[in-house]
Amino acid sequence: MKYLLFFLFAFNLEAVSVEVKEPKYTASIVPKNMSVKEKKARFYYLVVPAIYKVYNELLVEYHTIKANVDANITTPQLLTLKAIYHVETNEDLLLALKPHPKSIAIAQAAMESAWGTSRFFREANNIFGMWSKNKSDKRIAASQKRGGTRTIWLRKFDSLEESVREYYKTMGRAKAYEQFRIYRYRTDDVFTIIMGLDKYSEIGWSYVEALSNMIHYNNLTKFDK
Fold it and tell me: Which residue from 138, 110, 81 is spatially nearest to 214, judged by alpha carbons?
């Protein structure tokens, strides 16, 4: 019997052919005449895996550092992360490191990239419309100038995953999001956490309301389960 099983196993290995499929969608190409349903499907196909991967990496990092802090252990990794996030205390580092729920990142990505159809998304893998003030950055210019004269530069990333990673790092260390970091550290309730995003956009609280509606209407909290 065992020889028969071995034969069948070997036969199946030889019979299986590896088929390399082309990606269903790519960030740089937006299919014409998409329905709303397909536009969202394309967005989820491209963006959600990148957010999941980065979120899981950051969550592991956060729990590792928290365990060290709780045990009063200072590691080279902890010191390096303090430098990266521009913090001095362990408490502030934990605030910086805890990643917020995926539903918030997905909602912001959808809003900032027009569901993955914006020029910055297509040409620069820039999901969140992140600006650049550093001439050494990879970047592209916005088509419109601020105030009619000032060129606006946006970051250009090698991948969507890199864009997500930079977004989470920005949310973890920018001064404008101090309250946001406190909310996300104290609770996992999405609609409480987003109350700290009133400074993310020039439209202030209207942005928070729009974000709340985006999460509600598209049931994005399902990605947090």
Answer: 110
| Host H or E run for residue 139 | strand 139-141
Strand partners of residue 155: 139
The third-level CATH classification (topology) of the domain covering 33-224 is Lysozyme (1.10.530)
Which H or E run contains 140? strand 139-141
| Helix axis angle, 90-97 to 36-70, nearest 10° | 160
For residue 40 the two structure tokens come to 């969202």
The one-character DSSP state at 218 is T
Query: Which pair of tokens denotes residue 123?
Result: 């040409």
Q: Measured between alpha carbons, how far is 183 from 19 in angstroms, rounded to an integer?
A: 46
Tokens coding 154: 């946006």
Burial state string for 20-34 with b = 16 or more CB within 10 A and e = fewer than 16: eeeeebebeebeeee
Q: What is the pLDDT of residues 46-76, one digit of tens each?
A: 999 999 999 999 999 999 999 999 999 999 9
Identify the DSSP state of 150. B
The band of 134, judged by pLDDT with boundaries at 50, 70 and 90, is confident
Domain ranges of the chain: 33-224
Pairing of strands 153-155, 139-141: antiparallel
Determine what percent of the chain is predicted with pLDDT higher than 90: 77
Q: What are phi and psi of 158, to 5 degrees?
A: -75, -20
